[in-house]
Amino acid sequence: MRFVLAIVAFVVAAVMIVAGIAQRTVFAPPSQVTAAATVPVDTRYVVIDSAVLNAHPGQQTLSISGSKNAKTQMVAYGRTADVKAWLADQKYATIAYRAGDTAVTVKTVTPKSGQTGSTGQTGTASTATPAPTATPTPAPTGTTPAQTATPGPDPAGSDLWLDEFDGQDAQVTKMNVPSGVSVIVAGDGTTPAPDKIVLTWPVDTSTPWAFPLIIGGLVLLVIGIALYLWGLYTHRRARGPRRKSGPKMPKLPKAPKYKPTASIEATPRGRRSTRRTRVMAPAILAGVLALAGTGAGAAFADTPTPTPTPTPTSTTSAPNSNSNSPAPAVTAPQLERIIKRISVAAANADAKNDTALAKLRFAGPALQLRDANYTIRLKKADQPALPAIPAGPLELSLPQATDSWPRTVTAVVKMPNDSTGKAQAPLALALVQQTPRDNYMVEYAIALEPNVKVPNLAPASIGAAVVPPDSKLLKVQPDQVAAAYGDILLNGDKSKWYSSFDLTDDKLVAQVGASWKQQEQARLAQQFGQTSTLTFSGRVGAGPVISMATNDSGAIVWVNPEEVQLHRVTEAGAQVIAGATTAALSGVAQSNTGIESVYGYQLAFYVPPAGSNEKVRLLGFAQGLVSAREVQ
Q1: Mean pLDDT over residues 106-134, rounded?
Q2: In 3D, which of 531, 524, 538 has the Cα closest to residue 601?
């Protein structure tokens, strides 16, 4: 019997081990699923929707090849709506993939007649044409020679992409693209995009039963060997030599049985005694069980029984998962990359005092101040440069929640310590993207006031709304803030807006407010008498009014007031001597008539909601000479 059991154990162990090894080798599933497509060779842009990328679970791997110039190829991904907005007037190819039959379809999409993109280009009349077969074959292009000759926009370096890979880095890209995000594959807009697209998804190749089968088979093998050795041992013992026994020993006589007398017997005899014994045995057993049960019950009673508590299911969804809520204009990593690009562009422009380079990333009041600074520094070597734009880190970001253009983003960047090791105030930036193909431009760049109290803002993952400039829901309309504050700088406590602003810790009023202006006029009169006059006037600059809502129904408002200083000659033969900075910018060192200097202000305010007891307060500012000229 032991040999039979050993043979059975050997057979079962062999089957289990072979089955376990086969699961990891012969019957192992493929490690990945691949879908390949070939697009027309003259296609400049290829779009892969998130539905295709998420056709299988797991991380997606995108491989591209076939580009005529590998240095210009790029792969980027962004929100599907943003990708389509960027491609508004451009012809592109899309890839469709059905996971059930693994069929890849290429479809060419061209803009409708008269459709104009963000750059003003107009597309030709055409309709989307799918590929005639379900295999990766080139789709009809419908491209005319004139279209091929016209260069398209270059998608590389666009601030619209959530992430981007260029050149050799675009050959193989691993990503986890969520729903609502698409991938764009392109060249530089002039050269075609890579025409071979391969998508790969990982497959779960885990074999949970392989290891238990192999281990179980080895255990049975050991048991079979032990049974075999045991059976062999007992079999050999059974076949050993037998010796004959000698004569049997006589049996010993039996001792007489002991019979107790009636006087000594105390135990009752008969049926009643037997019945009593039989009854007592269950009673004793029941008593023992009862005591045991009581002890066990007491033991369990002393130990509190844990009551199952339902675990709340997480209901936190992705930000702006509601289709009715627009997503924030940028994500945090996207904004960090944009700030780094702005920092590099600003450093290049500042090093060369080149306004053309500054225009790549600056606009409005920020560009105006930098342009004037460059002009002054070219003629006045000791003129300090404007603060550099650091590459990070970000201390605060507030993107606009919108799906249209223009888009606005505000950010606060930490400034490094100065040359003496002293901490500098953070730099606040207001960025605006006018169209999908435009990059974010710095409209305002200001230093925050010391110990500034920033109002409660919406999280960056949700974004904030833009308040209309003429909104009456604020204590002061956004489009009136510049004029109101400029009036305070001119007239001080005599201004009608004086009581609406909190000027307790306002450093700008202390520097260039009404008191300072009166001191300058008195100094000039004492030094030169009545030969000239110095007058001040305010006006609103050309910078846009930017208003971002806060959580308390207030707003952060960015404005651009300007102040005009007119130093005019009032006595014949007198001259006005321009300062070194004014002379460098105007090109006039002295004048027999007068010199006009314009100072630009970049200001950020917190404006409370209408009806609030709070006052408008200055959050930060930047100011400087922006223009100067001789007047007649």
Answers
A1: 52
A2: 538
